Amino acid sequence: MPAFTHFLIIANVGIFLLQLAGGGSLIQWFALWPGDGAGLASLPLLTPWQLVTYSFLHGNLMHLAFNMFALWMFGAELERVWGARRLATAYFASVVTGAVTHLLVAGAFGGGGGPVVGASAGVFGLLLAYALLFPNRRIMLLFPPIPMPARVFVLLYVLLELYLGVTGTQSGVAHFAHLGGLLGGWWVYRFGRSRPRYWRG
């Protein structure tokens, strides 16, 4: 497994074990909590580290397992093409854009006042970058087990997240953080250095 992907998985698992050991203070200090007010005032201006640290915390074992599986599946392949530095830039850019998007939407429309945790925004950014680099690579869904090209998989997932976020039919999930994470992945794909000179199917 490439080095940075390996590091991220170990770090996430290690911090989750600290949570299980009674780290309630980890949520208090390092989860993403919205500030007071709407718009830019909803950002955690006094605790800006939360824009990154929330991504190392998880709600339960299944939440962690799903994110780490996706990180291994998409991040490892990207790192082999991009290298560790560019992958790290894409991942953390996605984490931050996901956090900011969630807080701005929550501040504008209300709700979402509880803490946000999880690496999903970073994973979504990597997923988009993966689909842009390998648009024809087949991805097998778990439920149902249907193979489809990466570009189709991402499009369907984005539409599902947008629907769930707008309708609020799946509470307790930061859908707009997921969608915001796409911005970071796209930005690094579009403007990052050393883009591949070819597409791989």
List the helices and strands and how they pair.
Blueprint: H1 3-20, H2 24-30, H3 50-53, H4 61-82, H5 84-109, H6 120-133, E1 138-140, E2 147-149, H7 150-167, H8 175-191
Antiparallel strand pairs: 1-2
Helix pairs in contact: 1-4, 4-5, 4-6, 5-6, 5-8, 6-7, 6-8, 7-8
Give a summary of the structure in a few sentences.
The chain is 63% helix and 3% strand. By secondary structure, the chain is mainly α.
Brief descriptors of the model:
mainly alpha; Rhomboid-like fold; two-stranded antiparallel sheet; 2 strands; globular; disordered C terminus
Structure commentary:
The protein is mostly helical and 201 residues long. The protein has one domain (3-191): Rhomboid-like (Rhomboid-like fold, Up-down Bundle). The chain is 63% helix and 3% strand. Strands 1-2 form a two-stranded antiparallel sheet. A hairpin with a 6-residue loop joins strand 1 (138-140) and strand 2. The protein is globular. The model is unreliable at 195-201 (pLDDT under 50).
